[in-house]
Design a protein that fits this description.
With 108 residues, the chain is of the alpha+beta class. It folds into two domains: 1-30; 39-106. The chain has helices at 21-29, 42-51, 55-64, 67-75, 84-93, 97-106; strands spanning 2-7, 14-19, 39-41, 78-80.
Length: 108
Amino acid sequence: MYTGKSINVITGEVTDVALTKNEIDAIHAMPEPTPQPRRIDARRLRLALLQLGLLDDIESAITSLGAAAKIEWEYAISIQEDNLLCVAITTQLGLDVDAIFTLAGSLL
């Protein structure tokens, strides 16, 4: 017999529960959760780009993409790392999105 833990979310009480082999196998067969793309507020992203010396290059690239890209860049409250504009710019400039978002996430 296999056992697992059950936690009562109201009381916090932890109890052992019996699990069958099929239940254990089903738990192990569950896919890993898909990581969600990071979302960072525009202020911290711009500060990270400034710190990396990339802000002017990014803004020039955005201007070259036209009015819609410029509006999105200027008025977005937050930017998600898989956003089409973000992907287009970082690909165009050969930048490391992960490094930029990691730095931005570390800023206060």
